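Chain A, query sequence.
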Amino acid sequence: MGGANLKDYYKNFYYQNKLIVVLMAITAVALLIAQDNFLHIIYNVYLIYFGGFILKQHLGEQRLLSTFILSATVGYGVFAINYHELIMSYISISAFFGAGAIGLLVASATYSPNMEIQLVLVGRVKMKWVVIVLIALDIFSMFSEGQIARISNIGGAGFAYLSIMMMKQASGSSFKNPFAGMFNSKPKFTSTVNDSYSKTQASKENDEEYNNRKKAEQGNIDEILEKVRLKGYEGLSKEEKQKLFNRSKEL
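Chain A, predicted structure.
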């Protein structure tokens, strides 16, 4: 990628994701003021970029901003309750923005738990497993020296998870706990009769009809996502919310 193309890429990214860029910049500056270590700053900025981008695509910027602010506030509250003598210290700044950053990722994973992402040296991994590992690391490390601010991440993550669960239930979607049954080793039984019927029905649809149907479905999803971008998630009808939710389960 040439210099001019790279410049255009960043320019377009900024204009299309101004809110995410602003949150990343504010977080970076705040953590620098808090004298946080460089790797932790990069970590939180990346969480905002990654989690925020996914959340914006599905639910719009209004939900993105509210999730960040409220996750940060709840996380800060958890920190203040446990370390009230440090609420005016630099550590509290790290606690606030760290909770907001992890909240965006948890909200994205709760909405699309089976969405796969590519990780270096690991390969493709489902979002829910990434979040579980990160939260586990926070729990194990928050009692270490110099890591007490990580307790706020638990509060921020908990709020983000519950807020998306409640939003789905309020929208009328048949929403199941995305993390339920992950450790259930019981075998799943399927009906061969239903499978045969499905295959018979599928065979009646030729390749051209299938491609046309998929193209129409994707066009409809694109229209809904554009409506989310312009009016926010609450601007969707109940039917549109259900279509978007069904699509998210396929990711």
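Residues 218 and 247 are 9 Å apart (CA to CA). The chain has two domains: 3-170, 192-250.
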